[in-house]
Amino acid sequence: MKGTVSSQMVNLPMLFFALWLLCICPGLWVGCAQEEAAGDDPVVARVADVTITAQDVRAFIDRLPAPTATEQVAGREREHLQTLVDTELLLLEARAQRIGESPAFLSRLNRMVRDKLVQEFKRKAIRVTIPETELAQYLEEQGFNRALRISDIMVTDLETAERVLQEVDAGVKFAEVARKWSTNRETAAMGGDIGRFVTRYEMRPAIAALLFRLPVGSVSAPIPVGGRYSIFKILEEMAMEPAGEMKKEAAEALRRRKFASATDSLVAALTQDLHLRRDEAGLLAFVELLQRGANAAAGGGSFDIVLYRYDDGQLDAAAVIDVSKALDGVALASLKSAEQLDAFIRQHVIPDVLLQAAALRDGISDEEEISTWLKERKRHLLLSGLRGRMLQRHGPITAEEIRQYYDAHQKKFLHPEQFDIQEILVDTLASAERLRDMIEDGSADMGDLARAHSIRSLDVRNEKGRFHLHLHESAQFGGLAEAVMAADVGELVGPVEVREGFSVFRVLSKERKRESFEEAKWAVTSQLRRGKQRQAFNELLREVQDRYGSEVEIYGDRFTSAFAAR
């Protein structure tokens, strides 16, 4: 018995998931024009010249996430078959719309093929090993085996930071300059001294990379930190054995550095092996276009200008234009001479061109696993292109729609839970316990104690220790947010050990406020867009089911027999 395509409303989340799953799982796409499978793997459906077997359905089900598989598989194999059928119908429509012939599609596909072949060639050609002796040397060079006590001077802008550095260079003591200039209220009174040793693992990687290579007594140049500028001095160091995570981080950084160096060497060798050479006439012609402006250089007539040649291939202007568009902040307009153009191409274009050429020379694209991957990614791009055209049919979301949706959903778009707390933060456990006792026996007011003793920055709190705390700030407050979440309103809690010391606090209130329209606008727009996408997808799916219904055959008896025992 045969059946036709179902016109019922499908499970859209499952179909969206199917499109994603079919695009990332090698071997999951169904067969094309294969013979009628029999026995344990009968053909259970056909869409045009594509056959779907029972094993295709099982493979799809097996790749569902575990909760989905256990909750949705039993008795729903037919629905999963319909998902596979609908996917093939969408591919038919994508081909009918000739999406695969568009310049945007071909550009994305070529970039995807290039990236995959380059990645695979480097994986085969480059072997990075890290001996223990080399890792130990790297740990020492990069300061992973040091803990530092440092001072800082934080100021609002670079001009002020340079004036501060001039005073230090002139011989004024760093501590005096810190007391005079620093806006870091936690350290300024102590001459900038942070008061403890820190490891590289505790600091932002960009800052650690600069500071942990400096010797004791040295002063850094101004370093941008969170919209301000800081100058650091290395006060003291202490030897330490890097922890396991720190050694892993260092080993990975060293591996990346060695891999990049090996890639450079490989490209240099390929430059010779493939006889890379400049096409002087092409370079001059493209430079002339660049000098006339980026629009002229990016015009269709320039795409075929040959800039470099190598064995069995050439590099044309289209590749340079494509890479330039993909690089943020690197515009063709900035390239005004042959030397600048050559430098840009050699840094950003030639490496991947030569590596791809070497991969093709070695037959990597013909390997079964790579060939299958490339075919599947092409199908993914077809579906993605169809989805893009589908969304264009419904036009942009209007400001009126956004406002109406916000007003109609009063219980949505809430701020994360926030807490009003009063806190005293001190350096030692003993001090925290003493202050808590004073609050509990009523001998002192908590606000007065916070004003006199709390080391929490006044940038965060008021004089009486009160401030707002949000859950998303948990990393900033080093353990305090978690303790606040667990506390009841009005309860005096602590001492609690946090990153900065020991905290005694009381939760004054907990609440969730609704976001203003401006705050919620992005989320509202996103939800509206998803709703329009679902609507457009439903319409498209009904259209392709109607249009290609005669191309679909579902073999109900075979399907029932194949899945009867499941």
Strand portion: 15-25%
At the first level of CATH, what is the class of the largest domain?
Mainly Alpha
List segments where confidence is low: pLDDT < 50 over at least 5 consecutive residues.
1-5, 7-14, 20-30
Number of domains: 4
Strand order of the largest sheet: 1-16-3-4-2
Number of extended strands? 16
The secondary structure category is: alpha+beta
User: Helix share of residues?
Assistant: 40-55%
Radius of gyration: 32 Å
Number of helices: 22
Summarize the structure in words.
With 566 residues, this protein is of the alpha+beta class. The protein starts with a strand and ends with a helix. A hairpin with a 2-residue loop joins strand 3 (43-47) and strand 4. Helix 1 crosses helix 4 and helix 2 packs across helix 4 (77-96). The chain is extended and about 85 Å long. A 5-stranded antiparallel β-sheet has the order 1-16-3-4-2. Strands 6-5-8-7 form a 4-stranded antiparallel β-sheet. The protein has a 4-stranded antiparallel β-sheet with strand order 13-12-15-14. The longest helix has 31 residues, at 517-547. The chain has 4 domains: 1-104 and 365-412 and 516-566, Triger factor/SurA peptide-binding fold (Orthogonal Bundle), CATH 1.10.4030; 146-240, Chitinase A, domain 3, CATH 3.10.50; 276-361, no CATH class; 418-511, Chitinase A, domain 3 (Roll), CATH 3.10.50.40. It has helices at residues 12-24, 54-62, 66-72, 77-96, 103-125, 132-141, 158-169, 174-181, 205-211, 244-273, 280-292, 294-297, 317-326, 338-348, 350-361, 368-392, 399-408, 429-440, 446-453, 480-486, 517-547, 556-563, and strands at residues 2-3, 31-32, 43-47, 50-53, 146-155, 193-199, 223-225, 228-239, 277-278, 306-310, 313-316, 418-426, 466-470, 492-498, 501-511, 552-555. Helix content is 51%, strand content 16%. The protein is built from 22 helices and 16 strands.
